[in-house]
């Protein structure tokens, strides 16, 4: 059985960071949807994606990472996210997709024309392809009333932030009533930070929120998936995929 393949939809990654230089063989794919950049330039000037991918490298050491840069800051377009999800499924053939972002509604108001394919359609294709999707619930607190999209969509693993002792973070939105709510560590989590943003000798930073709980949950799932593959016989694995 092959290694678990994880696509990360985020702000890219600082490939020059010591942690990534030490794991460069595990970065199997790179693609940016940011305009005016070369297709494989996923350099991260914001830090969010570097932190997220650093967590995955630590938590799921036997996984391969595919970097999909869908934004350079906090503003992600649902249509771009949809394109990245489809690319991860069709071109990279990933097992898991992690998305540390969310929207109040599927289509943003500034997208005046309907996209060629919606994020909902892309999620449905992921389900048909048996790809696991993880998304951040958001950090709106109880005022948010419900998790963001796509975390609230049926079949997407909706990830909430906890303090490591089973306590829910105050910034978590109200949980939805279905079987896909999960809470894991997301408070004061230390991980990689871009060298150019951290100052001399500062290569790590602590961050909190569902954005950082999400890759931890995805990494744990990747470990379970790999162990399951190792335990299953080839015949059992074939039946599961039928």
Automatic annotation (TrEMBL):
The active site is at residues 10, 48, 211. Pfam families: Peptidase_S8. It comes from the Eukaryota. The keyword Hydrolase applies. GO terms for biological process: proteolysis. The keyword Glycoprotein does not apply. Residues 4-238 form the Peptidase S8/S53 domain. One of its GO terms (molecular function) is serine-type endopeptidase activity. Keywords: Hydrolase, Protease, Serine protease. InterPro entries: Peptidase_S8/S53_dom, Peptidase_S8/S53_dom_sf, Peptidase_S8/S53_subtilisin, Peptidase_S8_Asp-AS, Peptidase_S8_Ser-AS, Peptidase_S8_subtilisin-rel. Belongs to the peptidase S8 family. PANTHER family: CELL WALL-ASSOCIATED PROTEASE, SUBTILISIN-RELATED. This is Peptidase S8/S53 domain-containing protein.
């Amino acid at each position: 059985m092959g290694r678990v393949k994880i696509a990360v939809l985020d702000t890219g990654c600082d490939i020059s960071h010591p942690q990534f230089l030490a794991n460069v063989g595990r970065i199997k794919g790179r693609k940016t949807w940011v305009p005016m950049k070369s297709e494989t330039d996923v350099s991260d000037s914001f830090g969010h994606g570097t932190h997220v991918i650093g967590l995955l490298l630590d938590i799921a050491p036997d996984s391969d990472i595919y970097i999909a840069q869908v934004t350079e800051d906090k503003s992600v377009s649902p249509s771009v996210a949809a394109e990245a999800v489809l690319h991860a499924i069709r071109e990279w053939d990933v097992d898991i997709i992690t998305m540390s972002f969310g929207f109040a509604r599927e289509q943003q108001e500034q997208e005046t024309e309907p996209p060629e394919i919606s994020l909902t359609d892309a999620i449905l294709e992921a389900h048909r392809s048996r790809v696991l999707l993880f998304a951040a619930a958001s950090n709106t607190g109880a005022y948010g009333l419900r998790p963001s999209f796509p975390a609230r969509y049926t079949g997407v693993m909706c990830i909430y932030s906890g303090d490591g002792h089973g306590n829910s973070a105050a910034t978590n939105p109200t949980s939805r009533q279905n079987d896909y709510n999960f809470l894991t560590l997301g408070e004061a989590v230390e991980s990689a930070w871009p060298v150019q943003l951290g100052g001399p000798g500062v290569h790590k930073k602590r961050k909190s929120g569902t954005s950082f709980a999400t890759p931890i949950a995805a990494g744990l799932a990747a470990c379970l998936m790999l162990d399951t593959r190792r335990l299953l016989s080839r015949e059992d694995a074939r039946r599961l995929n039928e």
